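Friendly challenge for the regulars: who can give me the structure tokens for this chain first? No prize, just bragging rights.
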Amino acid sequence: MKTLHLSASEPGSAEIAAEILKNGGIVAIPTETVYGLAASALDPNAVKKIFEAKGRPQDNPLIVHIAKLDDVYPLVEKVDERLYPLAEKFWPGPLTVIMKKSALVPYEVTAGLDTVAIRMPSHPVARKIIEASALPLAAPSANASGKPSPTKASHVIEDLDGKIDAVIDGGECSVGVESTVLSLAGETPVLLRPGGISPEEIEEVIGKTEISHAVFEKLAANEKPSSPGMKYKHYAPRARVSLVKSDFESYLNFVKAQKYETCAVCFDGEGKNFDVAVEYGKKDDPASQAKRVFDALRQVDETGCEFALVRCPEPTKEGLAVYNRLLRSAAFRVIGLDFKRPVYGLTGRSGSGKSTVGKMLREMNVNVIDADKLARKAVADPDVIAKLREYFGEDIIKDGSLDRRLLAERAFSSPEKTALLNKATHPEISRLVIEEIHSGEALGKRASVIDAPVLFESDLTCLCKKVICVTAPENEVIKRLSLRDGITDEEIRWRLSAQRDEEYYKSRSDIIIENVDPEKTREKVIKFTEEELS
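First reply, four minutes later:
Bragging rights claimed.
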């Protein structure tokens, strides 16, 4: 298919788009929020073309766009009285309202729901096209499903050129994030998706309004989305995105500690502090963030980085919409660096006795985090699995499960392959470690200690106030490993030769605990807690 490129400034362009829509075609049109991929909302076959072009899941409902208030009546079973004050205040504009649908609206539009989402865009080009077509238009964002929403015609062309009938360039969108979605289907209004109209603004008009839990967290596996943008990972570049909640100094240190090239997605004026950065608006100006956030996420891929750490905006009022979009772009990965208790590192060679020291610390109400255990949990993350398949082959997944033995065989076959394993898993391990730190604080632990044999090869050292190194004489190490693993002295020496020597750990650590005599080791652990945690 050849996509027709139109400019809104050209005479007759809106009429050309309207004709395509009346004939069952699909056209990308500008709105004040983002570009929408429009089709007749009354034509099931045309609506199906939207899903096909975007690669959109069929259970994700669409929003119907209208040009005037009278257009609502044929689309709903009954107009909710609360719509009138909302429409008077916010229409035309970035507010979508959900009500019980009429029989006129095909289930292809509503994904089988008995409700329909309706909005009246304020963009003059969108309104002109709706009026010229004399149709209500179903129109999700005009991007490939899952990618950042388009705020420029060039974004649409990048994703959908050759897959749709036409795109009409109406310039850059003024709002930049999709509309607020408000359900009036129940007794209490429920905000299902934050957007250009804040919850506080809605409450000023119609009173108490609830905010759906799906604004902040994933829907349960059996929950059906009642609004676009509720169920799936959305707005995501190819890079793995994580939100970082912290002050700027902690964010700066964390980004700089990353072992793989990482793009800092930060506020205006902060980018100069990083090797690779994209800025997405002023720190205290949610409107500027909203206008630029999707463009910034697309720019991340232009940097070539596989990882992006995003400065977390304030999830209040107008900023809630930006936070929600970034949260979904990050697949709900939020890294909070605002620790209330100190964090320490615990490391050393195999057989040195880290587990012994860790056990003693646990007895003293210290949260000891086993990074090796979390590594096994990390490989269950969908994004990690996708990278492992890319690096080590599709056949590492058998009958829906990871073949850990085959993965290990391939990943440890060379230093280069091991580096790929680390690249795929370490970011998720770090996130899980940070999650465990917060869990320990919630339980009232005195401090957190990260037990990681490769601590110095990770980004976790930037979290640590100090690092504890556990050592033991080599003959004692060999004896312990022989008893623990049932392997020969020769195999043990080969294993140790593949690790860093003891001096490597000691020279980078702040506290050295030689673990030979259990009582003396305990004394040293007690001394550590008295000096550091009292």
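The chain has a mean pLDDT of 93. The first helix runs from residue 13 to 22. Your move, everyone else.
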